[in-house]
Amino acid sequence: GTGAPTRAAALLREVFGFDAFRPGQGEIVEAVAAGDNVLAIMPTGGGKSLCYQLPALIGHGVTVVVSPLIALMRDQVRALREAGVEAGALTSGNTPEETDAVWDALHDGRLKLLYLAPERLASGGTQRMLAEAGVTRIAVDEAHCVSQWGHDFRPDYLRIGELRRALGVPLAAFTATADTETQGEIVTRLFDGAAPTTFLRGFDRPNLHLAFQPKDQPRRQILAFAAARRGQSGIVYCGTRAKTESLAQALREEGHSALAYHGGMEPDQRRDTEERFATEDGLIVVATVAFGMGVDKPDIRWVAHADLPKSIEAYYQEIGRAGRDGAPAETLTLFGADDIRLRRSQIDEGNAPPERRAADHGRLNALLGLAEAIGCRRRQLLSYFGEDHPGNCGGCDLCDRPPETFDGTEAVRKALSAALRTGESFGAGHLIDILLGNATDKVRQRGHESLPTFGVGKDLSRSQWQAVFRQMMGRDLIRPDPDRHGALWMTEAARPILRGEAGITLRRDTIDRAKAARPAVK
Ligand code: ADP
Ligand code: ZN
To answer: Could you tell me where the beta strands, DSSP code E, fall in 146-220?
Structure first.
């Protein structure tokens, strides 16, 4: 059934505050939650801890986590507690009171995760207490520490196999070390040589073609993309429910077979659409992100985003629904300044704590950086997930047609100065009027025609300036303030550019495209 994945998705959102799994996480979480013995090899920064933390919340009983890094354990315990999860650590850094509190919680059956420093395993007392405590799973972080030939060897890790045998519970081992010799040692020492379910797949999906386009006429762009793929199964993701309906209608008018799908629809209507999509050839589903969980059609030939996804993780997950059969599949993601404003204000207006909001901005920035990338997109995408790729993938729009760039330092400085001289109180439209030297009513009312920046930007058109502002937002040099009608304020990242200590390269093609789309306003 879909019970476990839905529960996992809900926990992912509610406890961890993430909108999508990172590459690999979903499958690993499922296997760990199902009680498999698991060996997962993921790059550093790939998001291993979630793969044992989340399953610990699904079942009952305690998950024991063995990790060699005391500071990291304490950090994780703090973060879990802040998220309302009962977690504790037994390490040499504990005060006696802390240790007592952890044993009490364990004894009362309150604990979901118990972090354990490996040296604790040397004590027979610990093993005995754990045997009585209702441990249902063991997770081993940095599992390569069990390898006697590696440089991180921890002799106490050799006791983990013994603990697993004593408790008779499944074990999930995690490492970033991918060489086969180390893997062999992990299997021998932690699993007594019985092959665990192993996850080593790299994150790259070479059969997916990656492309982004700035929005100029978004509906026309999506219709053109679909027209070139007539008769193929595809998904169009939209930011709003209303748009799924209107875009599906527009596709039908062009002779496609297309259906809308969103969370506001009746359950049977949704089920009907899911079923038709699974069985019919060449159907297009125009959907919100509500469509996807449980969609495992292998031959989806394309995925398009009519609006920018929430984060780089959501992007990867959504495009990843195409081409599961391994045959070539195409993706296209549209983005515009309106998306950036919307996504930023969704983050700022949410009631998440400040650190979480900062992290959300960071994940959005990563996606925006990818949208306005200058080199191979696949390389940039994978590097965000910790995986190296040499670039020149031959499967992205930037490899197909390298973008022209130009030194945008001067333009960016002018734009920043227009924002600063007007008290960081205005949106892009008004700032562009100032740069272009347009004496609009608003400009005259505020006396902005006497600013030194008035008219210094006549070398670019309005749409070119819009592209510059969008790239500045994408690089997080300026941010709209949701409490002041989207007034743009300058971030720390912009300071070196303004001071003349750093330059910036911008993409020319997205600017020229803007120029071609609409005649320059003079
Ligand atoms: P690893 O142990 O693999 O090096 P971590 O578990 O420390 O990686 O995770 C690295 C970072 O990725 C953390 O900041 C974590 O909050 C973030 N992260 C993990 N999973 C997700 C996700 N699904 N969406 C967004 N961020 C995530
Ligand atoms: Zn490429």
So the answer is: 171-175, 197-199, 208-209, 212-214
- The pLDDT confidence band at residue 415, using thresholds 50, 70 and 90, is very high
Centroid of ligand 2 to alpha carbon of 461 (angstroms): 30
CB atoms within 10 A of CB 493: 15
Q: Rounded CA gap, 298 and 325, in Å?
A: 5
Q: What is the band of 2 on the pLDDT scale with cuts at 50, 70, 90?
A: very low
Q: Pocket around ligand 1: residues whose beta carbon is below 6 Å from it? A: 18, 21-22, 25, 42, 44-50, 313, 363
The confidence score (pLDDT) of residue 517 equals 42
- Give the Cα separation of 257 and 458 in Å (integer): 47
Q: HSE of 421 in the Cβ direction (CA atoms, 13 Å)?
A: 21
Ligand (nearest to CA of 9): 1
* Integer Cα distance of 296 and 292 in angstroms: 8
Q: Side-chain half-sphere of 67: how many Cα atoms within 13 Å? A: 25
> Ligand 2: distance of its center to the CA of 490 in Å?
32
φ, ψ dihedrals at 262, nearest 5°? -155, 170
pLDDT at 363: 83
What is the Cα Rg of the chain in Å? 26
Q: Could you tell me which of 145, 143, 101, 99 has the C-alpha nearest to residue 125?
A: 99
Please tell me the residue having the least CA distance from ligand 1 atom 16.
47
Residue having the nearest C-alpha atom to atom 2 of ligand 1: 48
Do 351 and 357 form a contact (C-beta atoms < 8 A)?
no
Place of tokens 């998306």: 339
- Relative to the alpha carbon of 385, which ligand is closest? 1
Percent of the chain as helix, strand, coil, to the nearest 5: 50, 15, 35
